[in-house]
């Protein structure tokens, strides 16, 4: 007789916890649940997002093989999970234990050695650190039908601490107020501070001319806080997910098609950069600045971004000293720098100074950007036609035309080395395999073995389009009035058509790895609506100051580079008691992200901004 393995789970909460601060409550809960999880997993050897499955084979003289398939793996092959030997004695099953994935629902496929048996498939969503039994037995000796039952021996733990984490985030403004005391520590003069604004500042008033007096370097009184708030919101989410996001799957990049929270922030950052370029260049043109001076500044800024991305923020440092043999050429800052340069040049070539009294009430305003700047639209449409032509017409050896899949075990294993189709092929051809990202998000779920870079060459075309869409935001013009831009809403319609409102079944699915056109139009629409809301709350009604996101938005390059460089340093990371606990990871990542918010606040109070 089989007795289920029962491991007691206890998480007492002190009755006096009500008098503790929210931070202490959250920390106590994190550590308490983590300790109970640890005591449960030690005899089982489970890792994060895993459950224990005991497979009971009661089939007489018949071996059993169990395969599995995740619901999130589109058109994938079943993967072998475990083989269970036959049972030689009735009533005494053969039992084998195996760890199963608990992130997403899975389908278990049973295969036996007996001829003519109908082996069912079982669809189930296992809970993290749960203890389950899969009992496989015959109905009776006279039939070939078998039964499969899943029994819960031990209930899974509640690892969804996201609500607690969000409540803790709500206390960041209080933490910022507390840090006012620590401002005294920064009273000493710092020789390295630069009084300026970071990349894409919307009200940039500096000039490349040495004849301009120093007073033109001050921050404009009309600076739009909503832009910095939006930029800071995107940046803080980016920092949080880069630090791990508590190891929750919805804070990681999607394996291939579809969107998670982590997939939103980089395109939003590109979008707001385009909006900032539009306003800043328009401001300089109204002041009569030379286009050559502005072009020189854009070239220098793009070069610095590319250089910082190559030399400082490079993942290959984990392999030792930086070497050209394995230097990753594409990257986040590299793409930002190139995108900024192209869009800035495009704006300089065709932009016209907008009068201060230009209003949004003219009958043709909704079409003004298209009518006045039709050369820009022709250029962008040409870029998009190039992306579509290369993606769907380029001949990739060993792959079908227009392939958009992940390769590996996707598409039933037909194209294992075709990850990314034309996008991956172009990077391999022009950059070389060792100079692109070696661990794409598809390598776990789809078991890909080919290097693929999500910041590759072909995707940069759509990154330029994303920044250009940011140029088209009319809600932040000099008239300071709300106006619904039909262009961005039309992009939402395009996205619905291209994706068929589905994750995998569309003509062109939304895909962060490919930076597909549907991905760009979808997030451009989202970004516009979110920016419109923030603009209304912050700059129009002034119901919200933008804090705490406003502060990192004012120092975006410093926060991004800093969080990459100091990722493995205390207090941003420390050795955990249990590295397989969502609770400890979430606490550590929230603390690290909050520290960068506090740092940006202190720098803002001292008027210290990193200039590029």
Automatic annotation (TrEMBL):
Instruction: Identify the Pfam families for this entry.
Output: HGSNAT_cat (PF07786)
Q: Cytoplasm: present as a keyword of the record?
A: no
Q: Give the transmembrane region(s).
A: 12-33, 230-250, 265-286, 298-317, 337-355, 376-396, 517-537, 549-566, 586-604
Biological process per Gene Ontology, one example term: lysosomal transport
InterPro entries xref list = HGSNAT_cat (IPR012429)
Coiled-coil regions, chain positions: none
Entry GO terms, CC? lysosomal membrane
Q: Does the keyword Transmembrane helix apply?
A: yes
One MF term in the entry's GO annotations:
acyltransferase activity
Q: State the UniProt keywords alphabetically.
A: Membrane, Transmembrane, Transmembrane helix
Question: Which stretches make up the Heparan-alpha-glucosaminide N-acetyltransferase catalytic domain?
Answer: 223-345
**Organism domain of life:** Eukaryota
Give the protein's recorded name: Heparan-alpha-glucosaminide N-acetyltransferase
To which species is this protein native?
Terrapene triunguis
